[in-house]
Amino acid sequence: MVTDTAAAKSMAERLRAVKWDGDAAFAHRNSRSQLALEFLRRTAQWAVAVGAEEGWPVSDLAGALEPELTVAPELLEGLDPDETSGMYPVVPGLGAAMVRWAALGDLPQQRFPQLADPYEPLLQLFERGGAFKHAPGEFDLGFSSIQRGSVTGRAALEPLPIDTASLDALDQER
């Protein structure tokens, strides 16, 4: 297994660059809800494909796809925001899961070309102001909550657009 260190480093840098901002999260509440739904759909599809339903939606997709994957520990350090910051912390280990996924490089698309990147919607959700609380059965986004649903139910849903123009249009709706 060859690790795509450049992709893993890029993901770690992108995560570290997130500005946890409650005002931005509120302004992007509609798009963040859509991004959360798309994250659930995509991770459900991947979880079914690689046999990682246990722990979904924060299961170890990278480890299920490639158990031999290793990532330099320094890339994984400091990915979770400080829980004392007052912002919703990232679910422990989720940042590391995203970096590990990036370290797979093209392998996921080679094996499952029909499936989209599971973590891009979540990264965009973070970049639009903040994280979420992972409560039993739901994601609390601060200004709305999303019911998690079941793996099979989410996996069967149609994709939602997450391009910038569509997300910005959602945020213009009040």
From TrEMBL:
Record-given protein name: Uncharacterized protein
